[in-house]
Specification:
Layout (H helix, E strand, L loop, with lengths): L1 E6 L4 H9 L9 E4 L5 H11 L3 E3 L8 H7 L12 E3 L3 E5 L2 E6 L2 E2 L7 E2 L1 H24 L6 E6 L19 H9 L3 E4 L12 E4 L3 E5 L2 E8 L2 E5 L5
Parallel strand pairs: 1-2, 2-3, 3-4, 6-9, 7-8, 9-10, 10-12
Antiparallel strand pairs: 1-13, 5-6, 11-12, 13-14
Helix pairs in contact: 1-2, 4-5
This protein binds fe (ii) ion.
Fe (ii) ion (FE2) binds next to loops.
Length: 232
């Protein structure tokens, strides 16, 4: 699976390539947004590339409730056609199960901020859904799909920062221990150099990558490559 991952700050190189050479992205399977990007920017990318978009919202996007209320069945966001708001959801996509947790830790009461306890409740619900799906797979003799997570904030103590707004969520570690996702992509943590890779392997087998601006992620079997540029 090849993923174009974006977050937090628009990439001028990506915009240029989408405009002038969208065929460079012909082999990607989907676009994921880890939050805090303008709706217009995401629409421009998915309109140009004609690929599905999975997204969650960041703490600087205030459109959540208004958009969710107008979504049919609450499943699809109002971005360009085929987009899926993954917050608190687990959705099958090809050979993978896509999971999302939007927002940041609570720090000043604005939208898309969650206390540790509030996020833990959402994480638990998704965990239960996945464990049930795995039980059903086992009963039917099927192999369960590997899990790919997108979040805005990172897990606590992984790429996060000491100030209140940029602390990660402790409850994400519980999810990682129980569900063992293959890949975890997050935003929210800005890097001085957008072309720098910030990738951490968490035991037992979860690769955590900061998507800041734009990254290309290639997942083949259990091998994961994170490229720090918007094109391979
Ligand atoms: Fe953020």
């Amino acid at each position: 699976m090849k993923i174009l991952a974006v977050s937090d700050v628009p990439s001028l190189s990506l915009e240029t390539l989408v405009e002038t050479a969208p065929e460079r992205y012909a082999d990607i399977d989907c676009v994921v947004s880890c939050g805090d990007l303008d709706r217009e920017y995401l629409e421009f990318i998915v309109d140009g590339l004609k690929k599905p978009l999975f997204f969650i919202l960041g703490n600087h996007q205030f459109e959540t409730s208004q958009y969710r209320e107008t979504n049919i069945g609450g499943k699809y966001g109002n971005y360009a056609g085929g987009s899926t708001d993954l917050h608190g959801r687990a959705e099958v996509f090809g050979d993978y199960l896509m999971v999302g947790f939007g927002g940041s830790i609570w720090y000043n009461g604005k939208p898309n901020q969650y206390t540790e306890q509030a996020m833990a409740r959402i994480v638990k619900q998704v965990e239960r859904k996945i464990l049930l799906m795995r039980l059903q797979d086992k009963l039917r003799g099927r192999i369960s799909k590997e899990v790919i997570v997108i979040s805005h904030a990172p897990p606590a103590d992984v790429h996060d920062q000491p100030d209140m707004a940029h602390r990660g969520f402790q409850c994400f570690h519980h999810f990682i221990k129980r569900i063992k996702p293959l890949m975890w992509m997050h935003g929210h943590i800005h890097l001085v150099d957008a072309f720098k890779n910030q990738v951490t392997l968490l035991e037992p087998a979860t690769t955590v990558a900061n998507v800041f601006s734009c990254k290309m992620v290639n997942i083949a079997d259990h091998h994961i490559d994170v490229h720090s540029h918007c094109v391979i």
